[in-house]
Amino acid sequence: MAAAPPTVLVVGGGFAGMAAAVRLAERGIPVLLLEQRARVGGRAYSFHDPGSSDTLDNGQHVLTGACGAALALFRLLGTERLLNIQRRLRIDYLDAAGPGGTLDCPPLPTPFHLLAGLLRLRALRPRDRLAALRVGLALRGAAADRSLDELTVEAWLDRLGQPEAARRLLWRPLALAILNETTERASALPLARTLAESFLGGRRRSVMILPGAGLSRLYEAALPDFLAARGGSVRTGARAVRIETEGGATERVAAVTLADGTRLPASRVIVAVPHQALPPLLPTALAAGEPFRSLSRLGAAPIVSIHLWLDREVTALPFVGLLGTEVQWVFNRKALADDVSGHLLTLVHSAAHAAAARPAAELAAAALEDLRRVLPAARAARVRRSRVVKERHATFAPLPGTDRLRPGPKTAVAGLYLAGDWTATGLPATIESAVRSGNRAADVALDGETGVRT
């Protein structure tokens, strides 16, 4: 009788870990997914708000049609139906300084849909619209140009001759949402790669996709069932404290030790934890070498989400970008989700380095003032309730020079693999980046390859 394939341990139940576990299970490998919290989801989850009985996301998460790995994951889990998918790309903007605008791309073949959308963007002068097209023309070569990792986004836009109006309306809001970092600080490379994936493929790749329910409903119940049906399982409340290795010249993984003293022997381990959490899990000598000792240089960038329950509807739009305000986006949860009862808006402040240190009441008041500056209907609205969620380590900070610090899935230890949105996916810290990393780590673990990324 043939022996069952060896179980692979996956440490970390965020999107990278979930994707790795699903990939392995799909290929017939019994997998044990370990998560230290009482729930899976990592830094992308929803929770019950007892004051309103509504379900809130810890932060608003947005996909695009280019997020093929994430969409495939939800399809496998049977939850793709919970997504709101635009029929065509449309982004509305409201401007505190004057009239806003709408980027509305008609259903034309790529890249003519984007060309038509830019040419119809009346908030920009004709010459500024034409200048914006230079970014699109530059994307084909830019996505593979690693020298862009040494440039900030602003320096790249300088190189492409982008006028201030195009930066303010288009490139800065998009970069801030994609990178969670300001254009003065962020590397141009991950932005160029993301824009290339979204706008140089089919036009369906550029559409916006938002959860139609609390994010956890996309995976929380479906994941354990998917793994169990294939001989695997999820163990929450299981905090890994040490990854053990053995061997001499050829070091290999031996076990994972949990906080309660449980030792789980394993010949293959995928570690899918935030980059700050990885070095303490490793043997001291291993953590002191590259690439692990440089991981701290990836840093962190926070996101603040302000949830406001109003006494009336102030916009019918599902989401809208804000210009000239502290918060950058407003998401109409009642228009998007089926598990919200009141007039709930979620206002997002990305790259919130200073805002994350401010009191919640102050942030809620400032967000309401921003809303009233751009939405006349909000000026008479009353706030019934507010809640502020601060994710201080929402993403790594994609500063110039960080791309080379991001390791691939292989390590010098046989059987030990890495996954996470911070690894070398080529993308910024997004759900799509996390899922791709998990898939890749699972594939490499199945191949049994070892070696250090060069």
Tell me what the structure shows.
- This protein is of the alpha/beta class and 454 residues long.
- The chain folds into three domains: 8-41 and 219-298 and 398-447, 3-Layer(bba) Sandwich (FAD/NAD(P)-binding domain), CATH 3.50.50; 100-206, Guanine Nucleotide Dissociation Inhibitor, domain 1, CATH 1.10.405; 299-395, Protoporphyrinogen oxidase, mitochondrial, domain 2 (Polyamine Oxidase, Chain A, domain 2).
- It has twelve helices and 20 strands.
- It has a seven-stranded mixed beta sheet, sandwiched between helices.
- A hairpin with a 2-residue loop joins strand 7 (90-95) and strand 8.
- The longest helix is centred in the first third of the chain and has 17 residues, at 126-142.
- It is globular.
- Mean pLDDT is 93; it is low at 449-454.
Helix content range: 25-40%
Mean of pLDDT: 93
Give the count of helical stretches: 12
Tell me the CATH architecture of the largest domain.
3-Layer(bba) Sandwich
Strand order of the largest sheet: 8-7-16-17-18-15-19
Number of domains: 3
- Report how far apart the termini are: 42 Å
Largest sheet: 7 strands, mixed
Q: How many beta-strand elements? A: 20
CA gyration radius, whole angstroms:
22 Å
CATH class label of the largest domain: Alpha Beta
Poorly predicted tracts of residues: 449-454
Look up the CATH topology of the largest domain: FAD/NAD(P)-binding domain
Full CATH superfamily name of the largest domain? FAD/NAD(P)-binding domain
> Oligomeric status of the shown chains?
single chain
Shape: globular
**Class by helix and strand content?**
alpha/beta
User: What portion of the residues fall into strands of 2 or more residues?
Assistant: 15-25%
